[in-house]
Amino acid sequence: MAKTFCIANQKGGVGKTTTSVNLAAGLAALDQRVLLVDLDPQGNATMGSGIDKAALGQTVYQVLIGDADIPAARVRSETGGYDVLPANRDLAGAEVELVNLDSRETRLKTQLATVQRDYDFVLIDCPPSLSLLTLNGLCAADGVVVPMQCEYFALEGLSDLVNSIKAVHRNLNPQLKIIGLLRVMFDPRMTLQQNVSEQLVEHFGDKVFSTIIPRNVRLAEAPSYGLPGVCFDRSSKGAQAYIAFGAELVERVKTL
Ligand code: ADP
Ligand code: MG
């Protein structure tokens, strides 16, 4: 059975998509079978996996609406070594359409149940909001991986996210938990980041992953080549950190 994790944070630009794509590639490099679900209408995880979002037939949109199943819509990221349930602008309309459908929060969960045996990990790249799309992700997941930058307002933003996750846990998905907080875009030369990082560990203890993802320009360059950073320049510090994170997650999953 696959372990399903949402990569979520209500803030935009915090590294959710970079983490989703590189964790998928990092886990694939460790011989794990991975499905990456792109739940953001921007389709950045799709493009970053080397898939042309303009040339897609069926996408996660059709899967949510009930016009396609996952085996029909998934595509292979040849470079990444994992499958992608892709997204494009069509998904922006799903929000409105889902409101009128039955079981609107659990449609992704129902579809994912049919491909559990095909994967070791299902990773869901969420949009930056607590929309119906994100709710579909949270309802389908065993847990949440929260990428965050060690900045001044980081802890404040985190309490909003933790409250949202608690609400979903109470009302919709009793198995949902925070798997861990991942420090990303980390610059060890900045005292503020060091301080926030220490505060995080004080507050959240071993919920903070021990792997730290550094700020690394190779990770930022990779999407313009349609490649996960892990495949674009595997020896870079960023790529090595995401492969290490994949290994840490494989270990953590054993204790869940
Ligand atoms: P989100 O999905 O949360 O909106 P992204 O993953 O798209 O965030 O990241 C936002 C921006 O930061 C992108 O331009 C991305 O290339 C860049 N970025 C993300 N992680 C890193 C990193 N570790 N080092 C350098 N740039 C990064
Ligand atoms: Mg994103």
From TrEMBL:
User: Which SUPFAM superfamilies does the record match to this protein?
Assistant: P-loop containing nucleoside triphosphate hydrolases
Tell me the Gene3D superfamilies matching this sequence.
P-loop containing nucleotide triphosphate hydrolases
Annotated AAA domain ranges read: 3-178
Query: Coiled-coil annotation: which residues?
Result: none
Q: Which domain of life is it from?
A: Bacteria
* InterPro entries found in the cross-reference section: AAA_dom (IPR025669), DNA_Partitioning_ATPase (IPR050678), P-loop_NTPase (IPR027417)
By its UniProt entry, which Pfam families does this protein fall under? AAA_31 (PF13614)
The protein's name in its UniProt record: ParA family protein
From which source organism is this entry?
A: Derxia gummosa DSM 723
